[in-house]
Amino acid sequence: MDEKLKETRHNTEEAAKYFTNKMAFTLGPAELKELIDNDKIVVIDVREKEDFDEGHIPSAISIPRKELDSRLDELSKENTHVVYCYNTQCHLAACACRLLAINGFTCMELCGGYKSWTEDFRYATIK
């Protein structure tokens, strides 16, 4: 293993910063369900529209990543936006969150995407 990695792993200050940022900008399905139940967020599905139509998280709106740049005017900077894509390997949500943040929108990414939601809340998906 790289010596720098070994050294970094023992740097508790850096670990605290990393995990603080991770917790601030990501959430899991249970946290998202709580926010949806309390109506405090806008959920954005950045997958292809056809996939959204097959099933999506309740209350989510469909704005495919390739359309997001031209549809920012549909969103309010007053809201917190939770963005999701397909799964852990997909980076569409991360790209969308970066775009939102650059443009002044508060946003978070759902860890694991739609796949993690369906694994935790099969009964709550719209089909």
Can I get a quick summary?
The protein is an alpha/beta fold and 127 residues long.
Can you walk me through this structure?
The chain has 127 residues and is an alpha/beta fold. It has helices spanning 3-9, 12-25, 29-37, 49-54, 65-68, 92-102, 113-120, and strands spanning 26-27, 42-45, 61-62, 80-84, 106-110. A five-stranded parallel β-sheet has the order 1-5-4-2-3. The longest helix has 14 residues, at 12-25. The chain is globular, with a radius of gyration of 16 Å. The model has no long low-confidence stretch (mean pLDDT 92).
Features:
127 residues; five-stranded parallel sheet; 46% helix; globular
Radius of gyration: 16 Å
Distance between the termini: 46 Å
Strand content: 5-15%
- Summarize the main sheet: 5 strands, parallel
The proportion of residues forming helix, as a percent range, comes to 40-55%
Count the DSSP helices.
7
Please, what is the average pLDDT? Answer: 92
Counted beta strands: 5
Order of helices and strands: HHEHEHEHEHEH
Strands ordered across the widest β-sheet: 1-5-4-2-3
Structural class: alpha/beta
- Judging from the principal axes of the Cα atoms, what is the shape? globular
Spans of at least 5 consecutive residues with low confidence: none
Lay out the secondary structure.
Blueprint: H1 3-9, H2 12-25, E1 26-27, H3 29-37, E2 42-45, H4 49-54, E3 61-62, H5 65-68, E4 80-84, H6 92-102, E5 106-110, H7 113-120
Parallel strand pairs: 1-5, 2-3, 2-4, 4-5
